[in-house]
Amino acid sequence: MGSLFVLIRSFPSSLPWFRCFSTSHQLFKTASSNRWLNRQNNDYFTRRAKVENYKSRAAFKLLQIDERFKIFRSKSSSPRNTLNVLDLGAAPGAWNQVALDRSPHGSKILGVDILPYQPPDGASTLQGNILSKGTHQQIKNFFTLSELEKKDEIFNDVEIITSSKSTPEPMESDASILEKEIEVSQLMGKELSNKDNGPAADPASSGSDLTASYPVDVVLSDMMANTTGLALKDHVMSMDLCDAALITAVDLLKKNGSLVMKFFSGEDDVVLEKRLNAVFREVKRFKPKACRLESKECYFVCLGKRAYDVDKVELFSMR
């Protein structure tokens, strides 16, 4: 209080008193900002991010998670088995960069953030609120279009030969045409419905319908609210964002898909972990070395989504 009194006395008497307190607040704020800048400049991962051209030090958290859990490993040796990766809270794009580097060639990376940002070359971005159903539909539309583009590429590899014979080829039977249609349909990931010989296939069981409804292989969430310095409040806000990420995974993630989400540890993370275990076969807590030791920040790494359809009412009734 004495130092504040000296500060006030040092200003001219004509200066309004509220300007004095505003100035003292700015001095305290500047000191705090300087401490933050000094910590950033002296941080190993911040310096390394600049050297390796990552947009932020957060890239090393995801790199360390992937080194441990191999979340970007394709489930098949097929060169066409690429991944659809959804990155929530993606700005400024460091996790986009890691996903591009670690995913199989040709994978689709979509970053979603309420703030605009410039994604790295090869990734796409959607500005929107992940709590919105409209945003979920836009995500589905993006990956559905990507799947259609992949299927077009399949036919680019097919060589079409036109016969030079003068005599016409014999007409193929309906059975042989049907066999070829089935082969093409299977190649495109669709089930052929023969309306003449039987009932139509159940849409719920169609592989193509499931792909359209659940198009994502990996969901990443590095979402966080602006921290307040109050541990309980920061924890509660973190749990809300984790619930949003879990809803997104329930709605969009394929069976056997993976989810990585950041959370601030606290008493409610036990309930969150229980819900995650209901949706995924394997759930691990992991704190990468790139996280600051004093931080409450940690990650849930969830592998192997149990089923496509999950009852959200039942899930969020868990306590």
UniProtKB/TrEMBL annotation:
SUPFAM superfamilies reported in the protein's UniProt record: S-adenosyl-L-methionine-dependent methyltransferases
Family matches, as Gene3D superfamilies: Vaccinia Virus protein VP39 (3.40.50.150)
Domain Ribosomal RNA methyltransferase FtsJ: 54-305
Keywords carried by this UniProt record: Methyltransferase, rRNA processing, S-adenosyl-L-methionine, Transferase
Active site: K262 (proton acceptor)
One example GO MF annotation: rRNA (uridine-2'-O-)-methyltransferase activity
InterPro entries found in the cross-reference section: RNA_methyltr_RlmE, RNA_MeTrfase_FtsJ_dom, rRNA-MeTfrase_E, SAM-dependent_MTases_sf
One CC-aspect GO term: mitochondrion
Pfam families assigned to the protein according to its UniProt record, in alphabetical order: FtsJ (PF01728)
Family to which the UniProt record says this protein belongs: Belongs to the class I-like SAM-binding methyltransferase superfamily. RNA methyltransferase RlmE family.
Name of the protein described by the UniProt record: rRNA methyltransferase 2, mitochondrial
Organism, as annotated: Pichia membranifaciens NRRL Y-2026
